[in-house]
Amino acid sequence: KFVWILGGVVVGFWFLFSNILFQKRILKSRSVFPLDRKIRTTDVRDLLEEYNTKLPVYLCDEVETPCLFGMLHPAIYVTSEVVNDGAVVRHVITHEITHYLHRDHIWGYARGLCLVVHWYNPLVWCAAILSRNDAELACDEGAIVRLGETERASYGRTLIALTCEKTPAVLLTATTMTGSSKSIKERITMLIKRPKMKKYVGFLVVLVSLLCVGCTFTGANSEEKKQDVVTKTDNTETENIVIGTISEKEELREEEQEQLRVELELRQQEVEQSTKKSQLLKQKLRLLKQKKAEQH
Length: 296
Prior knowledge:
Blueprint: H1 2-29, E1 31-32, E2 38-39, E3 42-43, H2 44-50, E4 57-59, E5 67-69, E6 75-78, H3 86-101, H4 104-117, H5 122-147, H6 152-161, H7 181-192, H8 199-216, H9 222-295
Parallel strand pairs: 4-6
Antiparallel strand pairs: 1-4, 2-3, 5-6
C-alpha cells in the first residue's frame, strides 16, 4: 500500500507539474487573436458565432501545434505559422471547437486521474494513449461534418502540414492536432476511407424501385404495360448512372488517398531531417562546451 501511495504521489506531482508549467509558458507568451481580421475570406469571429461558442482565441508560439487548453476557462491557442492561410485557420478553429463540444479538455483530466490511481498498470497507460488517439479520430470526423465533405482532402493536408517533431505527452491535458507517425497515418487513412457506398447497394435500391413499380401496375391494361416498359427502361438507365457515379467517386477517393500518402511521407522526411539537424547542433554545442571547459 505504501508503494502504491508513493507511486500515485509521484505521478500526481508529475501530472500537475507538467500542466502548470505548460500553462505558465502559454500565459507569458500568448496574445489575443484579432477576431475581426479576415484571413483570405475567413472571418474568425463569424466562424465562432456559426458554432455558437464564445471560446477565446490566442496566438501563441510556445505550443508546437494549435490546441485547446484549460478546464474551467478553456481557450484555443493557434501558432503564427497558420494565421496567414484562411483554409488552415478554418480547419484549426473547427477542429478545436469540435474538441470543446466533445468535452475532450475535461476527458484529459479524467485520463490523468486514472493514471495517477492506476500508475502501476501498463494496460491503463495503453488505454489512455488509445483514448487520446480515438478522441482525435472522433474530432476529425466531427470537424468534417461541420466543414463539409468537400473539405476532407484539404483538411488532411492541414493535418500533414502541422505534423511536428514532438509527440504530445500522455499526461498533458491540452488537445493536439499532431501525434506520432503511426497515429497521423491512421487519421489520414480514416479521413479518406470513409464508409463507401458499394455498387451493389445502388443496384439494390434500383431493384427495389423496379419491384415496387411492378407490384403497383400488375393489373394494368396494355397501354399501362407499355408505359411500365418505358419506366423500367428509365430505371435501368438510372441504375447505370448511379453505379457509374459511385465508381467515379471511388476512383477519385483512391487518387486523393494516394496523394495524401505521398504528401505525408514527404512531410515526415522533412521532420526527420530537421530532427537530425537539431541533434547534430546539440552535439556540436556539447563538444564546444567540453573544449572550453578543458581549456579553462
